[in-house]
UniProtKB/TrEMBL annotation:
<feature type="transmembrane region" description="Helical">
    <location>
        <begin position="36"/>
        <end position="53"/>
    </location>
</feature>
<protein>
    <submittedName>
        <fullName>Multidrug efflux SMR transporter</fullName>
    </submittedName>
</protein>
<dbReference type="Pfam" id="PF00893">
    <property type="entry name" value="Multi_Drug_Res"/>
</dbReference>
<keyword id="KW-0812">Transmembrane</keyword>
<keyword id="KW-1133">Transmembrane helix</keyword>
<comment type="similarity">
    <text>Belongs to the drug/metabolite transporter (DMT) superfamily. Small multidrug resistance (SMR) (TC 2.A.7.1) family.</text>
</comment>
<keyword id="KW-1003">Cell membrane</keyword>
<dbReference type="InterPro" id="IPR045324">
    <property type="entry name" value="Small_multidrug_res"/>
</dbReference>
<keyword id="KW-0472">Membrane</keyword>
<feature type="transmembrane region" description="Helical">
    <location>
        <begin position="60"/>
        <end position="81"/>
    </location>
</feature>
<feature type="transmembrane region" description="Helical">
    <location>
        <begin position="87"/>
        <end position="106"/>
    </location>
</feature>
<dbReference type="InterPro" id="IPR037185">
    <property type="entry name" value="EmrE-like"/>
</dbReference>
<dbReference type="InterPro" id="IPR000390">
    <property type="entry name" value="Small_drug/metabolite_transptr"/>
</dbReference>
<keyword id="KW-0813">Transport</keyword>
Length: 108
């Protein structure tokens, strides 16, 4: 069951990447479809996080969920939205990835 919880958590984190990006595209909820996608996928992401929390420690699960979302949204911003990709910024993202992988390895 713990393996399924990790899968749910990973998918929830990836959905966070999509919903956050959709909310950016919604332009403050003034564009219908990006708003609908953002809100719908945020609810799905929260639901998957809640299911994963049945079998994973809350601190670990939340840190991994946020980490996946933060790294994904930052990379999407760099790749698709032309945001800055400085060495310092990329090193900080690498630190987040290292923390997420470390938490996964520690929890088994």
């Amino acid at each position: 069951m713990t393996s399924l919880a990790w899968v749910l958590l990973a998918v929830a984190g990836l959905l966070e990447l999509v919903w956050a990006t959709a909310l950016k595209q919604s332009d403050g909820f003034t564009r219908l479809w990006p708003s609908v996608i953002g809100v719908t996928l945020s609810l799905a992401s929260f639901a998957m996080l809640a299911l994963a929390l049945r079998h994973l420690p809350v601190g670990t699960a939340y840190a991994v969920w946020v980490g996946i979302g933060a790294v994904g949204v930052t990379l999407a911003g760099i790749i698709y939205l032309g945001e800055a990709a400085s060495l310092q910024r990329l090193l900080c993202i690498l630190l987040i990835v290292t923390g997420v992988v470390g938490l996964r390895l520690l929890e088994g």
